[in-house]
Amino acid sequence: MIKLMNRSVFLKLIGSSATALLLPGKLWAEDNIQDYTPEELIGKAPRDLVGNTYLTTMQRDTAAALRLMQAAAKKDGIAIKVVSAFRSFDRQKEIFESKYKRFIAGGDSPEQAVNRIIEYSTIPGTSRHHWGTDLDLIDGGVPAPDSVLEAEHFYGSGVFCPLRQWLETHAADYGFYEVYTNHPDRKGFAHEPWHYSYAPVSIPMLKAFMDLDLEAILGEEKILGASVISGSFLADYRKNHLLDINPLLLD
Questions:
Q1: What is the pLDDT of residue 6?
Q2: Which band of pLDDT confidence, cut at 50, 70 and 90, is reported for residue 11?
Q3: Could you tell me the pLDDT band of residue 242, with boundaries at 50, 70 and 90?
Q4: CA distances (Å), 202 to each of 74, 101, 105, 143, 209, in order?
Q5: Residue 66 · residue 82 · CB < 8 Å
Q6: CA distances from 110 to 7, 106, 217, 239 (A)
């Protein structure tokens, strides 16, 4: 059963002009779900963003909820820091194609290269970061390792283990949920204990996204490796990478 946002947090968000609504058993109101264009959903024409840097640009309501969560965490000695927020289609394409070129140069076939990429990175146009609702989080109050987004840093004696424990206990109070859990039966992207999504906005956006003709959209974008990203491969990707996520983030 989904954990509803903390009532006091909800009232503060309403006071800060956040638009997400709650109804019993849900994180949003059906009549508040907006119509999203394909361009908005694939990161080409984002809507309602705030912030002016790579680390601060995100969807408006997400930013408001994040500020409240950061303030609460600070009282417990946790300095929540964003290391990745909104990511455009073009930026995701750069990341994807850079890896693709490197893997192909190393001797991989196109299919091998794409499969290696999607262990952690999304196909351009399919990233949840395109919506401005998803954030990669670390604790900015502790000495950071060279590569911060490694699962080992969030468990055992890892420097971000206290952050993970705090988020697991409190993040849902602010509408945030871990996306790629460590459930043993989950497929798709590898476990990312740093990746959290603002459910009141990302749930209806995912619902709208899954109604897109993704094969047709991606076919027009001339992405390296496009010959692989179609048919049964794309169907499996939708099922295992886009939908096999934390069930609390599904409609």
A1: 63
A2: low
A3: very high
A4: 25, 31, 36, 31, 10
A5: yes
A6: 50, 11, 20, 21
Q: End-to-end CA distance of the chain, in Å? A: 12
Tell me how far apart the alpha carbons of residues 34 and 209 are, in angstroms, rounded to a whole number.
12
What is the rounded distance in angstroms from the CA atom of residue 173 to the CA atom of residue 192? 20
Token pair belonging to 102: 């490197």
d(CA 181, CA 55): 23
pLDDT digits (tens, 9 = 90+) for 15-42: 555 554 443 345 544 444 568 999 999 9
Task: For the domain covering 7-249, report its CATH number.
Answer: 3.30.1380.10
Using only C-alpha atoms, the chain has a radius of gyration, in whole angstroms, of 18
For the chain, give the percent of residues with pLDDT over 90: 82
Length of the chain: 251
Burial class (CB in 10 A: 0-12, 13-18, 19+), 228: buried
* Residue type at position 214: L
Q: What is the pLDDT of residue 32?
A: 47
Sign of CA dihedral 91, 99, 197, 55: negative
Average pLDDT for residues 218-243, to the nearest whole number? Answer: 94
